[in-house]
Amino acid sequence: MRNAASVFCKGRGDEHILDVLNRLWGLSCSRESRDSLHDLIYPEGGHFWEGNPEIFAGLWSQNYLGMHSWTPIIPDDLMRFHTGSYKRFFDLQSDGTTVDYGGEIVPAGAIPEYINCEDHRPRYKADEYLVTSVPYQDFWVEGTAAMAYSFAELMLCTRDVSLLAKYLPHIELACDWLYSLRDSNGLLAVGPAGTLIEREYGATYLGNLKYEKGYPSGAMVWYIAANRQLAELETLAGRPDMAEEYASRAADGRKRLDRLFAPAGYLVNYIESNGKFHGVFGASEHGYFESNPNHDAIAAGVVDRQAAEKIYASMKSVDGLFNDYGQLRCVYPTHDDCMPNYDHGINPLPVPGADPNIDYSKLFHEHGPGVHWNGSIWWGSFSRMIMAEYMLGKYDDLRSPLLRHIELYDQGLICDQIKGNGDPLYPKEYNHVAMIDFFEVVGAALRGLFEYRYTADSLVIRPHIYPEIEVYEQVQPVRYGDSKIYLKVESSNTGGIIAAVLNGTPVEICSDDSIDISYDMLDMADNLLEIQI
């Protein structure tokens, strides 16, 4: 008999789909699994590692970003370390007097890109492989916005009064710093390496290692999302004036984001300060497709359904963006605008601060087309694509990559990324070296079934149940404050939600695709929500 801890759901219908969901849960959360989230706990620090501490004794914020998919459903014994990971980054947030590794003053509000868990030294730029900080590289703009969004969601989920009292000012400081970066056009102006793709983002290159800032789409997406979440936090804290301010910033940011769309309806990578576009697919210069800002805009709810469908259609129209398993490359075909020594010889200028003992063109692996941020499949990024596919009901596009994820796990290929064609990126000695990113895909595969959107006073549940499933029961609960909610769905696949019952009491249905559960409605520790579709 299967250990109850390895069972996520049960039901009636396509048993294969249920088995896949249960296997994904078990390999991530069961202590019986050879490699699981339990193996990535750093007890002394009270948070997770990026990976095996003998090889990856640190924590990268962009690598951890996809873990926000786990927030509603992560087991209680792991929730402490999940929360602790966010706390660690924001405990090290700059107050405006913080001095970075290279001796620069870090702007108030910025969080580290990387934390070394051995010497506990944070790096506030994407420069952890240099011996000194590089002045022309920007601080961690997009990562700060994305982690502010994720930590704010965790506080909305847990409704932990002490956590909110301590860390609400940190989220405010982060969002206020981001607000200060807006240019006259209302877009965030970000210098080189200030986005999630690190030194693959070159901003506006003037030649001779001189740069001006650019306007990256990803930073705007997470800026909007973070301000929306902060507005909800302010409401939860009983501060309506502040809630209105941050909601206004989010709304204005969403209007400004329209400037960053290509005519076909997807987001470009960025615009230079001189107006040149990077990431218009098929253009003679910088004509690649950048995935991250596009799936992030959908997954974070920054764009509406119509815009999301256009983005998704654009992505699917790019032959080569997805590999044969349905896994998504972070860029296709390749960047032609990277920073020096980050693109396998395309721009081989020397980097100030470079360590003479490191061959930067082959740092861990060649940074040419199809690898690293230049076209590999990053599991943290792909987890947000999984969420986007659930939200749009693209079930046929989910099956193959989730099955392949299980196959990779069984082969011991559980690192942070694979090559764009699906081949292993790391040498064989990295087999069974677990990294946190791999499990983020699992979190999205399980969270996507109901999406879970937390507000100041309610949990919005949007069922996305595979059409082959007639009855779905979730054995593992979703958390909301001090309560747990168990979910059961009966689906005829003929339309939207027709009824919902919470603990035996009918719930008013305000939309055919979602249910709002007010926190005040949860009068028991364990609650049962039954939904008919």
Structural description of this entry:
- The protein is of the alpha+beta class.
- Helix 4 runs antiparallel to helix 5 and helix 5 runs antiparallel to helix 6.
- Strand 10 and strand 11 form a beta hairpin.
- The longest helix is centred in the first third of the chain and has 20 residues, at 161-180.
- Helix content is 32%, strand content 15%.
Features:
533 residues; 24 strands; globular; alpha+beta; 12 helices
Could you give a quick summary of the protein structure above?
The chain has 533 residues and is of the alpha+beta class. The chain has 12 helices and 24 strands.
**Total strand count, please?**
24
Which structural class is indicated by helix and strand composition? Answer: alpha+beta
End-to-end separation in angstroms reads: 31 Å
Give the overall average pLDDT.
91
**Unreliable spans:** 343-350, 360-367
